[in-house]
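Q: I'm writing a short explainer about Putative multicopper oxidase for a general audience and would like to include a description of its predicted shape. Could you first generate the structure from this sequence?
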Amino acid sequence: MDGRIPRRSFVRGLALTAGLGAVGVGSASAYPFGIDPLRPFVFSSPPLQPFREQLPPLPMVGGSAVEVHASSTTHVFHPDLPASPALGYGGMDYLGPTIEAHVGERTSLTYRNDIASNPLAADVDTRIHGVSEQDRTQVPTSLHLHGGRTPPEFDGHPEDTMRPGQGMVHEFPNRQEACALWYHDHAMGVTRLNIYAGLAGMYLLRDEYDTGASGNPLGLPSGEFELPLVLQDKNFTDDGRQSVRSNPLNPQGSWEAATPGDVGVVNGKVWPEMSVARGLYRLRMVNAASFSVWNLFFENRMRFWVIGAEGGLLDAPVATDHVRLGPGERVDLLVDFGTLAPGTTVELRNDEPIPAQVAQRGVQIMPRFCRFRVGTAAGFTGGVPETLRGGSRGLAVLPPVARPSVVRNVSVMQLAQGLGQPSPLMSLNNLRYTTDDIEMPRQGTVEQWNIVNVTPEPHPIHLHLVSFRVIGRQAIDTNALMQAVPVPAVGVRWTPSADPFVLGPNLAPQVWESGFKDTVIADANSITRIIVRFPTADELGFDPDATFGMSAHTMDHSEGGHGTMGQASHPLQGYVWHCHMLDHEDHDMMLRYRLVP
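A: Of course. Here's the predicted structure. Afterward I'll give you a sentence or two in plain language.
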């Protein structure tokens, strides 16, 4: 099915939408992948019954040396769907194994690109900078350990790509606190396609306190009671194929600014169920979606406890009944299924509103991810720890938020483009990725970044290499700001202070944001303030400003070049920061940055 709509059906759909809009919209699962006449601007997956399969555990691999090759595969996401072409890491037919590593012990990861065919070849958009026709058949990849304090040559820089048959050995020092990281593809201009196809996996960093073993000093669930959960939302065609197309107005092969899915996928399965014992579980969640932010809760609104963010454990568990998670963010939770009677089921649900400009196409909230069924067996017998840091726990308490010596304003923008270009351009600082006008913080400096989002939707912002503390958010009068400081032509930095245009008090970070993080949701029409300390080479054990080889992409930096292919490649240096909505990261909401001595 090519997704084209007969003109008569399209017009009829418009009429139905106009006439029945006050009544409501059709169910996303009530129609085959095609056009719901009540929602003519979105595709729908075929009807799929939830909870048909058990939640699959992700296999664990460990040791000082691991091999993780990327391969072409096929994968069955649901019993009623045929197998879909996909990609996998480490011999898996979708996603990758969970890698266990230990703080202070180096991990050598041997990576090779063994991809024989591109499952999303028709969706490659060669208008995006750094993308070529070759990418349809010779898939470029770049493995990134998200959240890792990694030397620049091993960080998976988006320009440092490998074609089929190529590979390298990544050296991960693991000189940071125990936490949950994840590894995923980061290739220039096709990250959204490669991760969607399956190139993602979790990486659990352990220490002598959080060992992951039974009887660990922190008293946390382990073994079968610790569950890595890779959460995604997807669209499927009638023949079971993964689809990155969300609407028929965008021709295949054209980049889309927003591709929310209409079914939930956990560890590679659509709406799975898991049988759980009556006791405490530790859920290590990552939002691995291309676009969607989720507000996650259990259908009975039972409380659970947040024990950690991206950078490691909190001082003590914090009770809540929901967490909001943007793409790239992780959260570490304790959930007590022992409070539920045997035979009880409870769903993990989502009720995050769809951004208005996406909802107007007819996109609805994807409501659920999985279901837990409580059995009769006794589970983990320990209770929720009172503390996780300080005292006899061994881990030092989280330090106070540092006082910055530099305040840096950065902006998050959406910009219209001319005919023949994918629009809108997603931009940081009103710049393109190919700019040389980059942030250059000094090593050892504490900075406050004011992330000014002048768009109508949230954007999860991720900084490579470093972690930070969130100090709050404030709504702003975007129109007043942009009238007072007009936006110049694309390519000219626009990073004004939004402080004169705030509309209310500074809102404290949410409980799940109270520790160290590497990704933060910058809400629409707001300032999100974070405090970052940029480490020194001595602290890291490597030079973060070292050059490392040459870019696999040749960029045109000339005036009017717009990031097209140029005449000569360039040496690589430093890291990147970007929106972790993968659709946005690919075009063009990503910039380089350097940590200078």
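A: For your explainer, you could say: The chain has two domains: 60-378, 406-549+572-593.
Q: Perfect, that's easy to follow.
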